[in-house]
Design brief:
Blueprint (H helix, E strand, L loop, with lengths): L25 H6 L3 H12 L2 H17 L10 H15 L1 H7 L20 H7 L3 H9 L3 H12 L4 H8 L3 H25 L1
Length: 193
C-alpha cells in the first residue's frame, strides 16, 4: 500500500506554530522521517487512502500540539505511532472495526505447535502481493496492527507493548495468532486460486 513516491505527499503541510511552543525544527526533524511509514500503517488500518490521509494529518496535528509532553531521549517512533493508533481507535472507523475484535485473555499461556510453514515461506512459494493484501485485510485490527508493527515496521516486542499499552506476553500471543490467521488465510486463498 505504499504511495510510490519517496517524499512526503503534497497533501500534507506542517502548520506554523510559535517558536515558544516548539524548539526550532525539532518536531519536524523527529516527525517527518516517519511520515511515509505512518501513512502506510494508516492505510492498512483504515483500508482507505482518503481516511488514511485524514488520520495521518490528525496524528501530526495532535503530535505537534502535544510535543511538549514528549520526553527527549525516549522512543519518538513509538510515541507518534501510539498517537496514530489512538486517533484511529477513537475514530468512527476504528471503533467500528475494534468492536468485532476478540479479546485476548491476559496472561493466557497456550502451547503453540511449531510449524515449518510461515506466512513468509508461503508468500515466497507464491509471490502474489494482492493475495497477501487481501489476507491481511481479513485480519482483525488488533492482529493486523501487531503483525505490521513487528514485521513491517520492525519494532521490538517492548516497543509494541509500550505503544499498545499491553504486556509483552500479549504482544507475543497476538503476533502468534496473527501469523496463524494469516497463514490459514493465505493457504485458503492459494487453494482457491
Amino acid at each position: 500500500m505504499a504511495s510510490g513516491n519517496k517524499t512526503p505527499a503534497r497533501w500534507f503541510n506542517l502548520v506554523c506554530v510559535s517558536e515558544d511552543i516548539v524548539p526550532s525544527g525539532s518536531f519536524e526533524q523527529l516527525a517527518m522521517p516517519h511520515f511515509e511509514r505512518l501513512y502506510n500503517f494508516a492505510c492498512w488500518l483504515t483500508q482507505d487512502r482518503l481516511e488514511a490521509e485524514d488520520l495521518v494529518q490528525e496524528t501530526y496535528a495532535k503530535a505537534l500540539k502535544g510535543f511538549s509532553s514528549f520526553q527527549p531521549g525516549t522512543n519518538f517512533r513509538a510515541w507518534i505511532y501510539k498517537i496514530l493508533r489512538n486517533t484511529f481507535l477513537t475514530s468512527r472507523t476504528g471503533l467500528k472495526a475494534t468492536a468485532t475484535v476478540p479479546l485476548d485473555p491476559e496472561g493466557e499461556d497456550e502451547d503453540l505447535p511449531t510449524v515449518s510453514e510461515t506466512p513468509e515461506s508461503i508468500l515466497l512459494q507464491r509471490s502474489d502481493g494482492q493475495v497477501l493484501q487481501q489476507a491481511m485485510e481479513q485480519l482483525p485490527v488488533a492482529y493486523r496492527e501487531v503483525l505490521l508493527l513487528c514485521e513491517v515496521e520492525e519494532m521490538s516486542y517492548q516497543e509494541i507493548a509500550a505503544m499498545l499499552a499491553i504486556p509483552i506476553g500479549t504482544v507475543m500471543s497476538r503476533l502468534s495468532r496473527a501469523r496463524r490467521a494469516l497463514r490459514d488465510g493465505l493457504r485458503l486463498r492459494l487453494q482457491k486460486g
